[in-house]
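Changelog note: in this version the structure field was regenerated for every chain. One regenerated record is shown below for reference.
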Amino acid sequence: MITKKRNFEVLHDGTLNKSVAFTKEEREQLGLRGLLPYSIVSQDIQVKRVMKSIKRKAYDIERYILLSSLQDRNEKLFYRVVINHIEEIMPIIYTPTVGQACKEFSHIFRRSKGFYITPDDKGEISKILDNWPEKDIRIIVITDGQRILGLGDLGANGMGIPIGKLALYTACAGILPHQCLPVMLDVGTNTQEILEDILYLGYPKKRLEGEEYFELIEEFVMAVQEKYPNVLIQFEDFLTPNAYALLNKYRNRVLCFNDDIQGTAAVALAGVYASTRITKIKFSDLRIMFLGAGSAATGIADLMVFAFEDEGLSKEEAYKRLWFVDINGLVVSNRDDLMEHNLPYAHDYNQLNFIDAIDSVKPHILIGATGAPGTFTKKVIEQMATINERPVIFALSNPTSRAECTAEQAYNWSNGRAIFASGSPFDKVYFNGKEYHPGQGNNAYVFPGLGLGAIISIARIIPEDLFLVAARTLAELVTEKNIQDGALYPRLTEIRNISLAIATAVAEKVYELGIAQNDKPKDLKQFISDYMYDPRY
C-alpha cells in the first residue's frame, strides 16, 4: 500500500483501512504494530463477521446504521459485503429501509457523507465546491428532498437517497467511490413537523420556490460543469413539476437524467418486454393502463411511446395504446385539471372511474405508480383477471409499505394467473402448491449500468435512445428459468454482469450516435470491465 499516512491516520481513513486484514509487512511499513490484535484475518472472514453482526440486529434501521458506519471506517469491506450479499443487503441500504433512514436522518446522523447547498450559498457555490476533497467527480446524485419515495417532503433528511444511490452505483456497476458525489439542495421544507423537530439538521425555513429556486440550481449546474467537466448529474426525488422543468431545461445542455422519470421507465419497459414472453402478446399490440399520472408513470409512458414508434407505430397510434387514471378518474381530453405532461395521453373518451376504465379499455397491463398503498384492490385484480388470461400487474410504488398491492394479493386474487412485478422486494409466494418468485422492478437494474456507459464514453447528453437500449438489454438478460418462476427480471445476484452488459450496449449507442467525446476502445466491454471497482484486498 502506497500512502504517506501512518499509524492511526491509516486506521481512521476508510479508503485505506483494512483493519485486521493488514499483513505483517503492511503493519511494519505503515507503523501499525501494536495498534491491531495479533491475528491477520482475510477479507472473506471479515465479511462473515459483518454478516453475523447484521443478523444480530433486531431492526433493519439498526442494520442500516451498522452498514453506514462500516462504509465510513472500511470502504472496501463495506462494498465487498454489499456485492457478496446483494439480495440481502440492497433492501437495507436502499428501498425499503432507506425510506425509514431518511425519515430519521437527523436523529441517526453520525458523520457527513455528502455536500449541502442552501439559499445562503447563492453566489458562492463554485467557491464552496472547492471544499470537496476529490476533484475527479464523474457521478452526482442530487435531490431537494421534496418528494422522497412515497414519503413526501423530508427536506434535508432526504440526503439518504443520494448516499444510497451512489452506493449502488459503486456496488452494482463499479463506479469508483471517490468519483461519486451525493448532493442535497437544501432549500427548506414545508413539512411543519420537521421544522419543529429540535434535532432537524436542515435549512430551518419554508421551501424556496419560483425563480430563486431555479436560479440556485442553475448556479450549481454551471459550477459543476466548470469543476467536473465529465460529470453525469442524476436528478432524484424532485416534485413532479420541478422534475420535468429541470429535465427539459438541462437534458440537451449537460450530461444528465432523472431516474424517477427515465430510469423507472427503462426498468418498467424491460419488464413489459419480458412479460410478452409469457402472455405471447406482441409488444406493438399491447394496451397499457397507468394508475397515477405523476413523473414516474408519465416517464414510463413517454419511453413506451418511443418504443412503440421503434416498432413501427406512429406517435398517434402509440399514444392510443397508453391510458392513465389519476385521483379524479380516467385522463380524458375534456378535463381542465391536467398538467402539461399529461395532455398527450388525454384521449377523447368518456370520463370513467378506475374499475369502469379497466372494463372499457381492457388493458393487458396495469402499472401502479401512485405512492398510495392498497389501490390495486381485490376488485381491480379480479377485473384484470376477467379480461386477461395472464394479467400483468406492476405495483411499482416505493417503499414496500406504499405498494399498490402485495405479491400475495396479486396471486391470490387472480387465482395464480397474475404476472407480478413490484418496485420494492417481496418474498416468494406459495399458492395452490406452486412457488412464485415476484420480480422487483428495481431501478438499480438500469441506472448504474447506464451511468457507467455514459461516463466511459464521455457522452455529451443522454437521449431517449440510451434508455431504450438499456431496457432491451435488461429484458434480453431475463432467463427462461426466470420466466418459468414468473419473474420478469434477472436475479440481483447477477447485477454486476447486468450493469456491464448495459454499460457496453449504452456506450456502443453513444458512439453510434456520435455524441461521445472520446475514441471508442478496441474492446469496449473489456475496457469497461477493467475500469470497474473491485473492493477485494
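Spot check on this record: The radius of gyration is 23 Å. Residues 259-279 form the longest helix (21 residues).
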